[in-house]
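Entry for PXG complex. Fields follow.
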Amino acid sequence: MNTELRNDTDFWMPFTDNRAFKAQPRLLASAKDMHYFTPDGRGILDGTAGLWCVNAGHARPKIVEAIQKQAGILDYGPAFQLGHPLAFELAGRVAHLMPQGLDRIFFTNSGSEAVDTALKMAFAYQRAIGQGTRTRLVGRERGYHGAGFGGLSVGGLVNNRRSFVQLPCVSHLPHTLNIGKAAFSRGQPQWGAHLADELERIVALNGAETIAAVIVEPLAGSAGVLVPPSGYLERLRNITRKHGILLIFDEVITAFGRLGAATASELFGVVPDLITLAKGMTNAAVPMGAVAAKRHIYDAVVDNAQPGIEFFHGYTYSGHPLACAAGLATLDVYAEDGLFERARDLSPYWEHALHSLRGRRHVIDIRNLGLVAAIELEPREHAPGSRAMEAFHACFDGGLLIRVTGDVIALSPPLIVEMKHIDEIVERLTEVLEGLD
Ligand code: PXG
């Protein structure tokens, strides 16, 4: 292990306990398929697909070669008032995977930028159709929509919000997790659909004509895997439609096979107006995000604009050639290897294996959907989060990468995961949980 990092090293690490990390660094040097490797060559089974993003597994040759090749053909082209063929090709391929009608694709470089873009599109659309009084946004408690000011304002994680100024005019729905009523649910909990009706209260309080959009993760990832109750998303869709409010699904985690379908929208049969994407779109090999918009949203914004630029928004790297090359190769790999179907077919085994941890020390809930699972631990009385953080360190040192948030262990392996890897994840977790006080 490299112990040379000092606390005054130049790198200010994101969402990291810098002091703890620099006192005891855990470095990753390389990766292949299901494994990371440390600088001293130790293999770490990737139980989280990086940060929910390396869905096809690490260093897939087709993706590596596509990036290498593109770097020598067109490294960069200005993104405004000029284009290059790969961006158009990728937009078409992404649109093809989206629910029918969401076929206008705006490229960003991250999930946070995708969220801010979608929120701006919602405002632009409402103005374009003469609904300019709609300036309120609705998010949800325990939502994570990235680190931009738009995303943190509609997000519902207190630590991300409390230190910063937020957008005005944001309301929050209650989150849907209730361990008392739905502990150890397999797949979608049966309890909780009625929580969508809280949106009616927000409408009644503020007036429908003030609300532009509702944004939710169909399955909330970062805040500890909150699986939507059966019927919940359908109700949100009905209420938003009734009141002329746009519905945004933040599918940064859930799209590209994570739940055993191209999108959560497809899986649940609920079609929003806008979908945010990132992570799995390029297998995380080059940063990229996107918003998929319903065609009539694009048409309204574009057709109602003065001649000239219709939407004053975009990024230097929107549709970056290397990201497009990575994205096209990634979508090929997903299709050639049938990874979305593979995730669907493996999910019963995954569910069964993870739920076998019920009854182990400290475990108060287990929840799952597709190739996602969470194991919630009883928090220590005076040190919430410390038990899961110790589990993270013990797993890593024992050769398994997990993700922890609060006292929740989240798992989301690459979709190439095999049954033997699932067994290994469960065995390692069993040992670690038994060893924790
Ligand atoms: N929306 C959702 C639903 C996300 O999960 C973002 C937006 C922001 O994406 P960018 O690319 O700007 O990071 C995310 C990001 C975790 C974890 O451990 C999750 C994310 C990022 C880092 C860690 O759960 N999700």
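NOTE: The chain has a mean pLDDT of 97.
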